[in-house]
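S.,

Sequence below, as promised.
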Amino acid sequence: MTWFRSSLLLGSLASTACANIFGVGELTAGAADAGGAGAAGSERTASAGSGAQAAFANGGAVFAADDGGATFTFLGSGGSTITIGNAGTAAVSGTAATSPATGAGGSGSGALGQPPSCADLPAVCGSLESASRDCCASLEVPAGSFFRSYDALPGGGWDDPASPASISAFRLDAYEVTVGRFRRFVAAYPWQPASGAGQNPGNALDFGWNASWNAFLPRDARALSDALESCGAEGAAELPPSTWSVVPDASELLPINCLTWFEAFAFCAWDGGRLPSEAEWNYAAAGGAQARIYPWASRLPTEVDASYAVYQAPIAKVGSKSLGNGLFGQADLAGNVWEWNVDWYRPTYSVPCDDCAELSADVDISDRVLRGGGYYNQPPFLRVAARGNAPPTTRDSGYGVRCARE
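The prediction came back faster than expected:
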């Protein structure tokens, strides 16, 4: 059962190839990305096999080589150097680098420092009530046990402790992915995760990205941008249908919406993270064993208003409702946009659950899980225990993403 308004389903995405429309050059297979290594304006050199291309944007660099034999060296401030081999691994000498590097089809998890989506972006996320911080801040969620979709409110509809789960420590990003962060991904596009990228190392059954899923990603940057920009808001014409724009504007701190599950997964893998499992997301939003009704410390279902969450209102800047932050510090776990989880949706939970996720589909399973409620929803859909589901190709103005990390 889908707990929210009907979604706009799009078929395959196709467009003519487009080079350099986002200022970073067209990429080919074999890409290596190192955003903002060293200080702005520092020297960067590259050597590669035949067919190497190079482009620079916002202090970062994007390279592509057609023979898989590329080696790139970055000369940063203070005499530091970073050498990236053809597998995307980085060797650092001198002063530590400040930005991650990614190799062909790999992810930013193998490098140092800041995720590529935040390289050179100012620390401006958050609300007036709390100090602004890095839009890529990722906060630790300690290990523990809890009951899934349970908030201990008698007669509240989610008072059955029949689905225990244990979760290992992990990190969950403080904010939903913003338009500004996603713009870096579009600049690096077309980028496809390598097989196994974005897997959860704590789950032996998680094999990460499946190469067959590449067919569900837009073919190039223009196709991705066009699909995002044309996304509509059915039945909510007074609300903004898409937060994306080709040219940066006042929406850069809004959560990116209109993402399919495949695009959300690919972004997190590119950014050095992964999609959270439903159990992890539920645990973080519930405050672990506190079994919160909403992410904030309320024990009454009526204790929700515009001070706590973005709902029945236009999409807002991430972190703008700090009173609604969860126990572990994450913002917008209720409202703003629904967040894709890695799991296939099943009406009932698997028991037992030890860092579990529903990763196998069958003929009766066609939807992926969404959590957290959206800007167009009523308070019941913001409850921590509430679940959403939709086909992974769905593109909806209420769907976004938040990444998990190790």
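DSSP finds four helices and 17 strands in the chain.

Coffee later?
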